Amino acid sequence: MSMRPPDLPLQRKGLTAIDGALALIILLLVMQMWLLWAALDAFLAGQRQSALPAAIVSGVLFLGCAGLFVFVVRLDAQSRKNEY
Hints:
Blueprint: H1 8-44, H2 51-83
Helix pairs in contact: 1-2
């Protein structure tokens, strides 16, 4: 059973894509926390009309994070499969 050395350029491309996706996830989560803070502040100040749009945008940010997470998991699985 011979094991060939991993294809380093392909592995580096995968790691670069994963690093970029994780950076985007962090950015989206920070934006979502800021949105939660701003929406809660407005809601407690009596501006109740901003709660629904903030919830919708927060849901869109959540779906973006979930999509990027699925991308990272699939890319990791693919790079591990190509490793052997």
